Amino acid sequence: MKIATYNVNGVNGRLPVLLRWLGETMPDVACLQELKAPQEKFPEQAILDAGYEVIWHGQKSWNGVAILSRIGAIKEIRRVLPGDPEDVHSRYIEAVVNDVLIACLYLPNGNPAPGPKFDYKLSWFERLTTHAKQLLAQEIPVVLTGDFNVIPTPQDVYKPERWVDDALFRPETRAAFQKLTAQGWTDAIRKLYPEEKIYTYWDYFRDAFGRDAGLRIDHFLLSPQLETRLTAAGVDRQVRGWEKSSDHAPVWIELK
User: Where is the Endonuclease/exonuclease/phosphatase domain (predicted)?
Assistant: First the structure.
């Protein structure tokens, strides 16, 4: 079972890139973030024509998450992260596919930090951690995946000294990620590639992709029931070099 995550940075504007990637790599399940489309403007028919069932939670201008499957039904569980009825951001969607619970998330960026946006990031993170603990308690196969907007360690960023004041790399952010993983989640990429330089995002500016000045902020966290089923993982970094591509590259894992 091949599961992928991809921050598309605008699903309609980058639809040709998305469809090409789906056609070339054929993940069984694909989680998308940053749709930047209201619910009614999601390109459902194009996704269906590509061979995928889909559920999505859109939002005008920004945010938005979706889960695609080409291996059968998507049983939606929820499309809001619990814990704050006032939060209207479309950043979370959760479903069961092929007996695996998949949570697709788009964690807040949090910049500028400190400030209200950073406070929102940390509070959202706390809600995610609370919910993740409840998911683990079910003792079922769970995948938490998406754009976490977290650089976990200095190993995960080009020139970390330039990021010390950024919301993605501040100590509070890294501590929150560590608190989450300490519940018993496995960082799939680092499980298989503990020492390698691996990035998933390259800024559009200053030829960041050409210089390989990237970050690793798109993650797969696996529940204990899936750790031993992990057989492969990687980043489709070639997609980042395609014309009119997202500033993120797709990330994927394979489970036996």
Answer: 4-248
For 195, the 3-state DSSP assignment is: coil
Q: What is the percentage of the chain residues whose pLDDT exceeds 70? A: 100
**Residue 127's domain spans which residues?**
2-255
CATH number at residue 23: 3.60.10.10
| 106: nearest Cα among 9, 21, 25, 215 | 9
Q: Among candidates 72, 58, 65, 61, which has minimal Cα distance to 29? A: 72
Can you tell me whether residue 178 is helix, strand or coil?
Answer: helix
- For 83-140, write each residue's pLDDT tens digit: 999 999 999 999 999 999 999 999 999 999 999 999 999 999 999 999 999 999 999 9
Q: Is 0.90 topped by the overall pTM?
A: yes
Is 225 exposed, middle or buried, given 0-12, 13-18 or 19+ CB atoms closer than 10 A? Answer: middle
